[in-house]
Amino acid sequence: MSAPDALPLSREGLEEWGERFGRAARAPSIVALSGELGAGKTTLVQAICRGAGVRDAVTSPTYALVHEYAAPTFPVFHLDLYRLDRPEELTNIGWDEIVTARALVLVEWPERAGDRLPADARRLLLAHDPGDPTRRILRS
Length: 140
Description:
Radius of gyration: 14 Å
Number of strands: 7
Structural class: alpha/beta
Largest sheet: 7 strands, mixed
Helix content: 10-25%
CATH superfamily: P-loop containing nucleotide triphosphate hydrolases
Oligomer: single chain
Number of domains: 1
Mean pLDDT: 94
CATH class: Alpha Beta
Shape: globular
């Protein structure tokens, strides 16, 4: 699923986009979600998970770092790397196994992974819309 370079979206639009993306997702796939605090990364992850068929409540793994969810055809891993200081810490959360699994891997704060983020990761960037605080800009 592809999005225009810069797509302004309401929360509802962001959720609809995420659900379409999740329905189209195939495993293995890694999605890197960047953006400042409060930009909507977790909201987008929740929508992608719904689209992929995850039935469980999807919550931010800020403290657990990794949540795994079952979807009908593949597992979904949701990682939040915000609390990591160095890419070397990824080893402690099973990073190598996760990014090589036949799974959909959704990574918030991917810049914390440094060069350990696979080059073929799909990159999405969320930002606040400076003209409308209720909207977000999605770049892919």
